[in-house]
């Protein structure tokens, strides 16, 4: 009888302990998710007009985001539990600083600090020759990743707008912008525009209405994949997802990858569907495993024989790795 009583006491204590632990665990999780906290602010270099994403906990309660210089934003887009986004306002402190979240008497400050971008085009090239249609106006300077448009004088008196998504290269220190069809030949000043709407008139260059390479149709790209895919570890892109109705991939053609904007260096690795290693460029861990500079949102290189074979096949077309989000893959048509 004594042993039976002891057994019942032990069993009851065990059940009570389990209930207590479970209750505490659930409560702790709920409380942790409810605590107002900022984990990250991206990007960390900003300027007026740019979208900023903030991650953390308790953000669904947010009523305002205070930027450096005590500039408050109340127009908040809630992406989901733990994510909000806002547009960087005008007037934030040029020295930068932390971001503060405010919610019903509570506040939470970011650990990381924001810096403020200030686009500064310093020089253009080439200056010693005419720039033909489909050749590039090269711009060098600082914080050029915030440039969103370029304006070329048109032969009809109206400006031709080239969106940044069509630049050959866009990085923090340089832009390569294709001269478009319809430009006015002769001395000209190209104008740039940043995400805040501010414009920058570049030094004079000489534009030509001759098409580079003698093609009347001009240089263009055929899009073979569009979407939004973050590579993570490895992305096995199936050949069935490629749209090859407008072009057939061949070795030696130029392929162009477009990425979402990033303010920090990102890795990019590419193999053909058989794990062959095409050459992208020098300067990385290997010829097919490179680092994209901050703001380098586009990449062009030649299609290898292995890539051409697997892209035209029926299984895996390309194997892509790194920590980058791809939005478009194109092949140059001429």
From TrEMBL:
Domain IPT/TIG per the UniProt entry, residue ranges: 47-107
PROSITE patterns assigned: PROKAR_LIPOPROTEIN
Signal peptide from the UniProt entry: 1-22
Lineage: Bacteria, Pseudomonadati, Bacteroidota, Bacteroidia, Bacteroidales
Name under which the protein is recorded: IPT/TIG domain-containing protein
Superkingdom of the source species: Bacteria
UniProt-listed InterPro entries: Ig-like_fold, Ig_E-set, IPT_dom
Pfam family, one: TIG
Keywords: Signal
Entry annotated with the keyword Zinc-finger: no
